[in-house]
Amino acid sequence: MSDLKIAPGPGARSAFRLGMWAAAVAGLSGIGLLHWTAVLTPVLTGFVLLLLFPIYLVFAASALSVWLGYGKDVTDLRPVYREKREKAP
After folding, report:
1. DSSP assignment, residue 85?
2. pTM of the predicted model, to two decimals?
3. Most buried among 36, 53, 55, 58, using CB within 10 Å?
4. How far is residue 1 from each of residues 4, 75, measured CA to CA in Å?
5. How many Å apart are CA 51 and CA 40, to the nearest integer?
6. Is residue 64 domain-resident?
7. What 8-state DSSP symbol labels residue 68?
């Protein structure tokens, strides 16, 4: 029996956008709070902002996309063919 596949609609798109904004605000607020309480030094804060925060956003986007139905699996793949080009004389 085949599974019924439903493409996410505009509601999922706006929920994803809102979720990413919320994740970014929460992450930046957490980093700011840790910097303000002197848990993070200025150098460590820069390291977190430049290297760890983008990775955090990728994980948040991955979790949101799967939760909202944007996830793809093997059945969504299709073969890719290239047409052979003839060489010019």
Report:
1. P
2. 0.73
3. 53
4. 9, 14
5. 14
6. yes
7. T
